[in-house]
Amino acid sequence: MAYSPASGSYSRFRKLLGYLRTHRTVTIAGIVTLLGVNLLGVYIPLIIRDGVDELQGDFNLDRLLALVPLVLVLASVMWVMRMTSRMLIFGVGRRVEFDLKQTIFEHLLTLDPAYFARNTIGDLINRSTSDVDNIRRLLGFAVLSLVNTFFAYGFTLPMMLLINVRLSLMAIAVYPLMLFMVMLFSDRLRVQQGDVQEALSHLSELVQEDLSGIGLIKIYAQEDNERRAFRVINDRLLQANLKLAKTRNMLFPLLEGLASVSLLVLLAFGAGSITLESTAPMPAGSLTVGSFIALILYAERMVFPTALLGFTLTAYQRGEVSIDRIETILLAETKIRDAADALVLDPAEVQGWLKADHLTLTYPGAATPALQEVSFQIAPGETVAIVGPIGSGKSTLANVLPRLLNVAPGQLFLEGIDVTRITLDSLRRVIAYVPQESFLFSTTIRENVRYGDPLRSQDEVQAAAQAAQIHLEILNFPQTYDTLVGERGITLSGGQRQRTALARALLMDAPILILDDALSSVDNQTATAILHNLSQGSQRKTVIFISHQLSAAAIADRILVMDQGRIIQAGSHQDLLAEGGLYRSLWDRQTLEAVVRS
Ligand SMILES: Nc1ncnc2c1ncn2[C@@H]1O[C@H](COP(=O)(O)OP(=O)(O)OP(=O)(O)O)[C@@H](O)[C@H]1O
Does the Cβ of 158 fall within 6 Å of ligand 1? Predict the structure, then answer.
């Protein structure tokens, strides 16, 4: 996913307000507290001004001693309020971070598998963490700083003008120049920030892919190549960061320097305007020592937020880039969703009757359909094997049944109902599906088996494991069903993983079971035994068994032979052997291979 500003600054600003909507009370409380801080910040210099002017006429220790505690109390109140405002506003940033992470994760769960084939996990993780972090900073630091700047300019500047217009204007004369600089650098900063985030995503992608495929890297002795590839991307990130740092390091000191110039201007021109005669009428344009001190204190209050404009801007722009990157995820929509009038299937009423009627499916961007005019009917309780050469469309067919792929209306029916008119949830509940890659979570065997329904009892888990022919092996694991598997536990063999995944599907006791080459790492004899058991008994399910293992497929009630997206043969093993054609040649080849191996 390349970074492309999906929206203008205005709509990004509206997005930000949208993030804040649920926390508006706390945000407003934070801003009101900040308002209090600024009002006190304006008031305290006035007390100091009056105090200094009074003392100048007639020095009085009692008066001085009364003034100090007052300023101290007010300054302490201001300090407490400042702390409170920071806690409130930074807290909002943290809450928005929480909301966003939750929203992104929940949204990702709604997207169909094709989305994850198009976008890398590393990039998605980066957007859900680093980009969300940038938005938190924007809503914490940048909001606090922007509001602070707004109040400082709104209150402090008028007070300065009231004290002395000429000196105040001279002090802030450099500010327009500063704003001009900020605007000048703003686009460059945003583009450079986008480059950094993108390079960061590429780095996460590479780490994620390499660590997942670490075995492959070692087998092919590609450590050096991967090291070089990492260096290239890491270097790209370094260059992007250095470029950004260069721009920031040019802008920030410039802003800080210019902001301090206002203090120098005041000192240079203000000192000459001070009049020490407190009794005589003040000459026009002159000011008392107290007013001069207040003016300096005010100017200082302005310097800080103005000098911070650069940081605020970066935080804001970083956040803007990240808003775009996060919105790209949130705007992605799945085409596979419930129709407005979708039916909820009652699992008890589903027998397992499937019908495809000229089912055709073309992957986005593909030149030819992966499924072409596929028609069949599968009766309740029937065991149907689907065989065919590599890439003939078998997995596509398996994915279409539970609507993991977007099937057009009027082509696929369950119990005579168009699957596009059934809610996804109820459709998927009646189809147990074991994919080619058997994924296990890093938890115990028991939790893996009862993933579809964590409340199932140990007896039920065991019965499913027995049907999947893995129970006896589980008993040999260190803690039997409590053994941890995956990253935090033992590593299962390919065949053990497949049979654990099968047990997980069997536990769901769904009327339809799809096995997509799900026993490829299990020996032929065991695979045949499993399939035989599944197709026997009174509680027969509709079983769709996709496999390259023809000896196991041979025991199915019916075999569908696929080639180039079409069903080109259908019948029992004996019928198909007698018929000749593709099935016969596949069978002969496998039989010959088995003879050669033995
Ligand atoms: N996500 C996808 N995007 C585009 N094309 C795809 C996608 N998945 C599969 N295909 C293409 O669709 C065709 C059918 O693939 P499919 O995986 O269904 O075949 P298969 O019979 O299951 O193969 P195998 O026996 O190797 O598992 C192939 O040409 C494949 O390249």
Answer: no
